[in-house]
Specification:
- This protein is α+β, with helices and mostly antiparallel strands and 261 residues long.
- It folds into 3 domains: 83 residues, Ribosomal Protein S8, Chain: A, domain 1 (2-Layer Sandwich), CATH 3.30.1370; 77 residues, RRM (RNA recognition motif) domain (Alpha-Beta Plaits); 85 residues, Structural Genomics Hypothetical 15.5 Kd Protein In mrcA-pckA Intergenic Region, Chain A.
- The protein has 7 helices and 15 strands.
- The strands form 4 sheets. It has a 6-stranded antiparallel β-sheet. The chain has a 4-stranded antiparallel β-sheet with strand order 5-6-4-9, with helices on one face.
Length: 261
């Protein structure tokens, strides 16, 4: 029997199946007095999970993906009176080494090679591509041995997959650029156009094509209004964080943006 008001908590939730599993973990943590761990969650699902967990006074939670800017994270969930630390979120780091000088590869290539072994996406965290040398990938510990044996080729290149220490993770801090723009409205196409330095028509096309997300949720309406604190991400272009929004004397909007690339 459920000890949480599941129907109420799941009301209006878009990722219902995944959030239901998070509630299962929460109930397990409460009943068993032990920390429960989720698999890796996408930023959108993680945001929704946190929103639901914030409604529960019975549990404490911590998200961690191996480094501060990690997109994909695991959730550790415990009883409210149990403190949580990052080391309780079990993670492993794999090095995928090969000579990609004559066959350049992308994040998608490494992810595809991993998934082709039969591993599901939820077991894989962030992937850092190291140029012609290969990549590093954060995974759940239970798939390490399997991938070390099974992952031996990415595209046309033979690779060696091995476990390395998390302290050897090579992370490039994102570059940031401060942008100020004055717009007639707070429409998504107008603000994103200024932030990503694209024409309004190209940005509208990208939005309707599903290439733009606001707070990790796909938005296909160029007229969608943004607000302070929103995070706009665009495939291949990075992210925009919406800062202060002020109204000018001419009733236009002065918007401060931070672009991450």
């Amino acid at each position: 029997m459920s000890i949480l008001p599941r129907d109420e908590l799941l009301k209006g939730v878009s990722e219902r199946e995944t959030i239901s599993r998070i509630l299962d973990l929460s109930e397990g943590a409460i009943k068993n007095w032990q920390t429960s761990l989720s698999d890796f969650l996408s930023p959108r699902v993680l945001q929704e999970a946190k929103s639901v967990l914030n409604k529960l006074t019975e549990v404490n939670y911590l998200s961690w993906g191996g480094y501060l800017q990690a997109e994909r994270c695991r959730l550790a969930i415990s009883r409210a009176d149990f403190p949580l630390e990052q080391q309780e979120v079990s993670l492993s780091l794999l090095d995928i080494a090969g000579n990609f000088l004559f066959d350049p590869v992308t994040h998608r290539d490494f992810l595809g090679a991993i998934l082709s072994t039969g591993i599901v996406r939820d077991k894989v965290g962030d992937i850092t591509v190291l140029g012609e040398r290969g990549a590093q990938v954060i995974v759940v510990p239970e798939i390490v041995d399997f991938l070390c044996m099974s992952l031996n080729q990415v595209r046309t290149v033979s690779v060696k997959t091995r476990l390395i220490d998390l302290s050897d993770l090579k992370i490039r801090p994102p570059k940031t650029k401060e942008i100020n723009t004055v717009e007639a409205s707070l429409r998504l196409d107008a603000i994103a156009s200024a932030g990503f330095a694209l024409s309004r028509s190209k940005m509208s096309d990208a939005i309707t094509a599903g290439d733009v997300r606001v707070n990790w949720k796909e938005i296909t309406q160029p007229s969608h209004n943004i607000v302070t604190g929103d995070l706009i991400s665009m495939r291949g272009k990075g992210r925009l964080e919406i800062g202060t929004v002020e109204i000018t004397k001419k009733q236009r909007y002065r918007v401060q943006l931070t672009r991450f690339t």
